[in-house]
């Protein structure tokens, strides 16, 4: 029987959306459902990979038959992803990582007081984990053979979106970039999606539409074809 495309490979996938605490009961979050990341994790496992899912907040359960690390914040996701990536062949950054977090999380619930001024939330930048994975790989001359980023772009003309995505791919330095066009009711939480896969060689972008399972299978197949045979 033919060997599965990811047989013997170790694949790390981040999924879901981070939550950045404001106080013990409140957070800044995003609309990521984790569905695409979980679909990728299943597709990678079905392709024969050993999968480690680093899961931020998700609206869907994590698959039971794989290693799962639960995280809340971008900083926790960074730690888990960098650690997991150390022994991985492929890292797929499908998580929606908050670009900013509140500068301070209050130790107790922020109260509304009639005599006090309205609170102001100061944000600070989170580290870019995808860039860090790429930088570490080049500094250490070791690391995952393939690092895959995601881009969620809203609205705008098709050509502009592709142009942004190509620029993002170059800025991040990852090997493949999967572009998702998102809007309030588009893609996030939905079961169907359209993705476009871009690579660093500037090959013709490949667009796939369908269920998140079908697009995940297509992404995993492309990843399998990019890996050097061994
Ligand atoms: O810069 P932007 O958020 O659009 O990039 C999206 C890609 O970068 C995704 O693969 C996401 O997982 C990753 N990312 C990251 N660290 C951040 C923000 C995004 O790794 N702080």
From TrEMBL:
On cofactor binding, the record's note says: Binds 1 FMN per subunit.
Listed GO MF terms: FMN binding; metal ion binding; phosphopantothenate--cysteine ligase activity; phosphopantothenoylcysteine decarboxylase activity
Q: Which GO terms describe its biological process?
A: coenzyme A biosynthetic process; pantothenate catabolic process
Its EC number(s):
4.1.1.36, 6.3.2.5
What is this protein's record name? Coenzyme A biosynthesis bifunctional protein CoaBC
The function of this protein is: Catalyzes two sequential steps in the biosynthesis of coenzyme A. In the first step cysteine is conjugated to 4'-phosphopantothenate to form 4-phosphopantothenoylcysteine. In the second step the latter compound is decarboxylated to form 4'-phosphopantotheine.
Record organism: Arthrobacter mobilis
What keywords are assigned to this protein? Answer: Decarboxylase, Flavoprotein, FMN, Ligase, Lyase, Magnesium, Metal-binding, Multifunctional enzyme
Required cofactor names: FMN; Mg(2+)
Keyword set includes Lyase: yes
Annotated family: In the N-terminal section; belongs to the HFCD (homo-oligomeric flavin containing Cys decarboxylase) superfamily.
Query: What highest taxon heads this organism's lineage?
Result: Bacteria
Task: Give the catalytic activity.
Answer: N-[(R)-4-phosphopantothenoyl]-L-cysteine + H(+) = (R)-4'-phosphopantetheine + CO2; (R)-4'-phosphopantothenate + L-cysteine + CTP = N-[(R)-4-phosphopantothenoyl]-L-cysteine + CMP + diphosphate + H(+)
Q: Where is this region: Phosphopantothenate--cysteine ligase?
A: 11-230
User: Domain named DNA/pantothenate metabolism flavoprotein C-terminal: which ranges?
Assistant: 6-223
List GO terms (cellular component aspect): phosphopantothenoylcysteine decarboxylase complex
């Amino acid at each position: 029987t033919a060997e599965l495309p990811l047989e013997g490979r170790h694949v790390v996938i981040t999924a879901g959306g981070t939550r950045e605490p404001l106080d013990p009961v409140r957070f800044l979050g995003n609309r990521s459902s984790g569905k695409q990341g979980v679909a990728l994790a299943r597709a990678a496992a079905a392709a024969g990979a050993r999968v480690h899912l680093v899961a931020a907040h998700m609206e869907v359960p994590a698959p039971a038959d794989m290693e799962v690390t639960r995280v809340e914040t971008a900083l926790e996701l960074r730690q888990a992803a960098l650690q997991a990536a150390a022994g991985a062949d492929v890292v797929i950054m499908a998580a929606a990582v908050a670009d900013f977090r509140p500068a301070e999380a209050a130790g107790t619930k922020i109260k509304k007081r009639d005599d006090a001024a309205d609170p102001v939330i100061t944000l600070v930048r989170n580290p870019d984990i995808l860039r860090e994975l790429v930088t570490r790989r080049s500094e250490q001359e070791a690391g995952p053979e393939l690092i895959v980023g995601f881009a969620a772009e809203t609205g705008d003309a098709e050509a502009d979106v592709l142009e942004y995505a190509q620029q993002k791919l170059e800025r991040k330095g990852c090997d493949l970039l999967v572009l998702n066009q998102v809007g309030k009711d588009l893609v996030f939480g939905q079961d169907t999606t359209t993705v476009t896969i871009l690579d660093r060689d500037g090959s013709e972008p490949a667009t796939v539409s369908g269920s998140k399972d079908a697009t995940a299978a297509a992404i995993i197949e492309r990843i399998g074809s990019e890996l050097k045979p061994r």
